[in-house]
Amino acid sequence: MMHLHPTSAPCEPRRRDRLLIAALVLAVLGGLVGLVAGTGWDEIRDQIGAVRPWQLCALLGLSLANYLARALRWHLLARRLGLPTDLVQDARHYLGGFAMAVTPGRVGELVRMRWLRRETGWSVTRTAPLALMDRAGDLAAMGLLLALAVALAAGGIAGALPVTGLALAAAVIATRPALLAALVTLAFRALGRFPRAFARARGAARSLARFSHGPTLSLALALGLAGWGAEAFSFHLLLGWMGADVGLWKAVAIFVFATLAGGLTGAPGGLGGAEAAMVALLTLEGVPLAVSVPATALIRLTTLWFAIAIGLAAFPLAERASLKAQG
């Protein structure tokens, strides 16, 4: 008689996810190594060595300011939704979710929802609008930053306007409950499947009405602009320290455009796409590969990978606290 092992099926997606992440990381590293080999190891090493420890700390500090500003926005939105959580809880959830930044399917949001369910008893359906508004806040802030940078930067960036439009359109749709619910209904009619999932999605879309509060939306947008602006400014500083000052607004435009472009590829954490876009745009500005490659590697190290490091530190604290609350 054949025995079925129910635990074997879930292992396959996890294994595929790990292989996908490993392949993406290897592809990025391979591309950077290829560029370095074609440029010259000595030049790359000299450029990286030119960045002083205090400068590296400054870059990490600006990235930390971004994460803290967005964690505060998460708390603001959680309170507006009515969640009975305090600032420490919300910051722990938000920062801990960064541990999943390069996992497929936005697992970071899902694990935050799991912690909230354990600590508050709220279902994922009730807390889903929080994750949606957080994502919309990022898109709105980055879209506005990119539009402002393109307007003020000399020469602009080819392709920036469509990316800006997509980011702002997605943010608008995500913050309009009736419009989002109508789009969910249209998607269900076109697909004709998964009625329960679409019903939950419609319910989550309608619950976004709780966020239709001018002061809340304004403060959330201001926190997003401050956070992402801090990281973009760190890129400007890094380029200046490496002798490739392309101007503040041009640096902001390149950073935000590359980050958004990486996200549009669908790759976890924008791996591959963001790095390629950043190197390409810097090259178009006349920055030599001996500078653009290490600058890209360092800014991704002090932003994406620093966020993951913070997430890995906060994750066990959030997991332990949620288990204790559950039980």
UniProtKB/TrEMBL annotation:
Pfam families: LPG_synthase_TM (PF03706). Its main location: membrane. InterPro entries: L-PG_synthase/AglD (IPR022791). It is a multi-pass membrane protein. It comes from the Bacteria. GO terms for cellular component: plasma membrane. Keywords: Cell membrane, Membrane, Transmembrane, Transmembrane helix. The chain crosses the membrane at residues 20-41, 53-72, 139-161, 167-188, 208-228, 248-267, 274-291, 297-318. It is found in: Cell membrane. PANTHER family: UPF0104 MEMBRANE PROTEIN MJ1595 (PTHR39087:SF2). NCBIfam families: flippase-like domain. This is Flippase-like domain-containing protein. It comes from Paenirhodobacter ferrireducens.
